[in-house]
Specification:
CATH topology of the largest domain: Hypothetical protein af1432
Strand content: 5-15%
Largest sheet: 7 strands, mixed
CATH architecture of the largest domain: Orthogonal Bundle
Strand order of the largest sheet: 3-4-5-2-1-8-9
Helix content: 40-55%
Shape: globular
Distance between the termini: 52 Å
CATH class of the largest domain: Mainly Alpha
Structural class: alpha+beta
């Protein structure tokens, strides 16, 4: 366990200036974690008893644009996580009347005062390293909680959450990302005060929610959001699926099905858009349900209703338009039809137009998650592989003279001739050569070859057709082999 040289330089500079200095908070937590799921610290923070003006004197290359005394020091490091290191004086905070920001901040003399204002014990750790000797300051047994995989509030849990209501959600996020459990009193304080989350901006809620969904334990995180009562302030629409039975094709409720679909995408390490698409794909089912019994329930049009609901969610949580639009499309078209004997190339082309070529692969991943979330044993059955095969086929231009950098008009112009069989024969010969060596597909080279091929007979030119047909057959064999069809 060693601090990066950039952090060591800042600590030693402050101490040479006569001040205390420690790395503090999440960077220490991640440094101490064995087999950390966060892959180590993503940013570094330093705390000190030096006032802001002294920090600025010691580090001329800095940024200072805040009311909390934080000075961001430019280190010149090529590592983005170390290029800018924030140094904050020890501080204590006044009341949080908006449940997010302190009304006032006062600088403190003691490190313990600063650590006592932090959210969770695993984040209330400070570390110093001088000449190879490491010192850890841990007044709230954060190392013990790290070892036991516990998220516990510092001091009085309810007071910590009242100070900053975002901590309600951060507790779930840390537990999810780290694979920890929330200590009972801390969890009870969350459950008791969930409504405080109303005071938090949608952007901050979105950012914490995304971190939960992108983690390896996204499924457990969503269940924990529901268990603590926070889900109703984030995605009340998703909760509509709780207890809603489906039909004979499903063994789970809508809620169970959607969350299990998310679990599959997390296990496969799929993208954020795919994970959210899987979680939301059947969100419209409760509002579209017709029929009360397990045998006769229908959900016609749930994909259309769901897409509208997801559009509202994306707007409410202020997701970037690009990812929001993508998730809406994944939900809207997740019911695509793919029976082998009935899917035609034209129907697949229509699907590509509707969902977008760039989204087709992700749409297939949603269907995989849909299947696993329904309790089916195979994510990719034969008919889904066959659909992928057709998509691949219609997504790529066939081997033809259209691939060439010249066309029939170029041939006629060069040969000073009109339309006729020879024009096609020359183009076929050019294509055969390009198939052998794609680097020949330049207008300069092909225009030169047109005149050379003009000297050959029709029978000689026709031999190129055999090479083209063989290349087409090989391409089709490779495609079929790729999808096992």
């Amino acid at each position: 366990m060693r601090l990066p040289k950039e952090v060591q330089f800042i600590l030693s500079t402050l101490k040479e200036g006569g001040f205390e200095a420690y790395a503090v908070g999440g960077c220490v937590r991640d440094l101490l974690l064995e087999n950390s799921p966060t892959d180590g610290p993503k940013d570094w923070d330093v705390t000190t008893n030096a006032p802001p003006e002294k920090i600025q004197e010691l580090f001329p290359e800095h940024v200072y644009e805040n009311t909390f005394g934080t000075v961001a020091v430019k280190t010149g490091s090529e590592d983005p996580s170390l290029a800018l290191i924030e140094i904050t004086p020890y501080r204590i905070e006044g009341k949080y009347t908006d449940k997010r920001h302190p009304d006032n901040v006062k600088f403190a003399d003691k490190l313990e005062d600063d650590l006592s204002r932090r959210d969770f014990t695993v984040n209330a750790l400070a570390l110093s390293e001088i000449e190879g000797t490491t010192t850890i300051i841990d007044p709230f047994d954060g190392q013990k909680d790290l070892k036991n995989k516990i998220i516990r509030a510092v001091g009085n849990a309810e007071q910590r959450f009242e100070e900053d209501a975002l901590r309600l959600l951060r507790a779930v996020r840390f537990a999810t990302v780290l694979g920890f459990e929330i200590e009972s009193e801390t969890k009870s304080a969350i459950v008791k005060n969930t409504e405080w989350l109303r005071a938090i901006s949608k952007e901050r809620i979105r950012d914490e929610f995304i971190k939960i969904i992108e983690s390896d334990h996204a499924y457990e995180g969503v269940l924990l959001l529901e268990e603590t009562g926070l889900m109703k302030y984030i995605l009340p629409e998703l909760r509509e699926g709780i207890g809603i039975d489906q039909n004979l094709h499903h063994i789970y409720t809508v809620w169970e099905h959607c969350t299990r679909a998310l679990k599959y995408t997390a296990e496969k390490d799929y993208s954020l858009a795919v994970r959210l698409g899987a979680l939301f794909h059947d969100i419209g089912k409760p509002r579209s349900k017709r029929g009360e019994t397990h045998e006769n329930s229908t959900f016609y049009g749930h994909e259309v209703i769901g897409a509208r609901m997801v559009a509202e969610i994306m707007n409410r949580l202020k997701f970037p338009k690009e990812i929001g639009d993508k998730i809406v499309k994944l939900v809207r078209y997740h019911m695509f039809y793919y029976n082998v004997d009935e899917v035609t190339e034209s129907s697949v082309r229509r699907l590509l137009v509707n969902v977008g070529q760039e989204n087709v692969e992700d749409l297939s991943k949603i269907r995989e998650a849909d299947r696993i979330g329904s309790g089916r044993p195979k994510a990719i059955p034969y008919k889904l592989r066959h659909l992928k095969y057709i998509i691949d086929k219609v997504s790529h231009d066939p081997i033809s003279v259209k691939m060439l950098k010249v066309n029939g008009e170029d041939v006629m112009k060069e040969l000073a001739s009109g339309p006729g069989p020879k024009v096609g024969l020359v183009l076929n010969c050019l294509l055969a050569e390009v198939l052998d060596d794609p680097s020949h597909n330049t207008k300069e080279y092909l225009m030169k070859r047109i005149h050379e091929l003009d000297k050959q007979s029709a029978e000689e030119l026709k031999k190129a057709l055999e090479k083209i047909e063989k290349a087409q057959e090989e391409e089709e064999k490779e495609r079929a082999k790729k999808y096992y069809v």
